[in-house]
Amino acid sequence: xxxxxxxxxxxxxxxxxxxxxxxxxxxxxxxxxxxxxxxxxxxxxxxxxxxxxxxxxxxxxxxxxxxxxxxxxxxxxxxxxxxxxxxxxxxxxxxxxxxxxxxxxxxxxxxxxxxxxxxxxxxxxxxxxxxxxxxxxxxxxxxxxxxxxxx
Length: 151
Fold this sequence. Notes:
By secondary structure, the protein is of the alpha/beta class. The chain is built from five helices and six strands.
């Protein structure tokens, strides 16, 4: 197969199990998709880690247990099951931080971790198709995907 280019109006059609969406700063459509998902991605990006109670910190230090404080980064991928909302299985909000190459690497890793589902990528605003495909092809041999252009 080949890379299929879709407009925003065609993007809600069936045809891919996994949708990749950039973060809110780099995509106009991310806000719309998040609204349909009951604002789950927005909640996750604003979520702050809870601090441990001082009593618990003292016990951990006294017993020399490892630190259980799990920190989340704002550039983590947010994967939401969206089968009940969209004609897909998952929607992943992948932050476009650190450049196009890093963004494509995150997408490819997620794609492999999910055992190679069919793929639809919503490109960040103002990113050209040629720039994306050149970077994507340097990282992955996957050509069976659809791409949505916002502009």
